[in-house]
Fold this sequence. Notes:
It is a single chain. The chain is α+β, with helices and mostly antiparallel strands. The chain folds into three domains: 2-52, Molybdopterin biosynthesis moea protein, domain 2, CATH 3.90.105.10; 61-268, Hypothetical protein af1432; 304-350. Helices cover 48% and strands 10% of the residues. The chain has 16 helices and nine strands. It has helices spanning 35-43, 54-57, 61-66, 69-95, 101-111, 118-127, 135-153, 158-170, 180-183, 191-197, 200-208, 215-223, 244-259, 270-277, 281-284, 287-299; strands spanning 2-5, 19-21, 24-27, 48-51, 305-308, 313-318, 328-331, 336-338, 347-350. The strands form three sheets. A five-stranded antiparallel beta sheet has the order 8-7-6-5-9, with no helix packed on it. A two-stranded antiparallel ribbon has the order 1-4. It has a two-stranded antiparallel sheet with strand order 2-3. A hairpin with a 2-residue loop joins strand 2 (19-21) and strand 3. It starts with a strand and ends with a strand.
Amino acid sequence: MKTVAVMALQDGMQIAEDIVIGDKVAIKSGTKVDHIIKAKLEAFKLLTVNILDAEDLAETYYEKIRVSEAFSIFKKNYNANLAAYKVAVDSFIYKKVPFRFVDLKAIADALCPDSISGKRLFSYINIMIHDEADMSYAHGLNVALICKKMGKWLRMSPEDCETLIYAGFLFDIGKFMLPNDIIWKHEKLNKMEYDLVKTHAFYGYHMLSKYGINEHILNATLMHHERCDGSGYPQGLSRDEIDQFAMIIAIADVYEAMTSARSYRPPMNPYQVVEIIKDEMFLKYDVAIITTFLNHIMDEMIGNDVRLSNGMMGEVIMNNSGAIGRPVVRSKDGTVVDLSQQRDIKILELI
């Protein structure tokens, strides 16, 4: 809602609140402005009136975020820092210019200050839509921002937090050696294409290993597609053989890929992601890391309005510690649904 001078009103704007003259409602909220309404307002000698803005008119959570002034500011800052990150990546790949970690830290600090919540940060990066040529750069930047939050949630030391952020920026560097039309192919990859994509972990490791880079960063580059049950690549390592930093990057990588908007699909919400990975998350990922990560994500969803698969709309009021992603939801009429008990109902979207 915003306040607008009556003289500045434009046709089609919507009145935000009932306008009461005396003891009667002269103009109801939601009324669209036209020449008749403007004449009435002038006759009432009103100087200003409250108008619904784009955020008020948006229907879903992500739509509200997308049209907000705060996101507009973030987007401008994000694009400027993405451009700087692209220069650093391209300079490394094509001119062999080593990364300046102080510059990468400045990018992360600019976009992810301590004051921003994980919920707001992740929502912002989730709805950014990029040209195909920029998607690999954006993925690396987004994972680095997620890692900055994860480091704090996992109570890592300041030094390890910084190392994790740098690993987020660099872990996928090998993908820049592969064709973009394969990396971002919309359809399922055939075996030859998939085998080619799997080489990016080795590419990245060997590219970075020439520059005396921290071992955790190198391991994250090589091992971020390894899985605790041995089902990953490129070496089929098991839990005890995978670097902890690679385990963290693996989770940030998957979460970012699922929740970010693509040209061919909207972003998935956190509840959808949990529904997809819950059956395998304790086999493929480090239990302590993924539980901590998802619990923080879910905690920040408390207070959000959601739409359920049974048509009900309500507010998330409590999480269930034994059922990640299955919270308690209360509708406006007081109906309470515990999704940990009613497994046939799921959250469709944030509203």
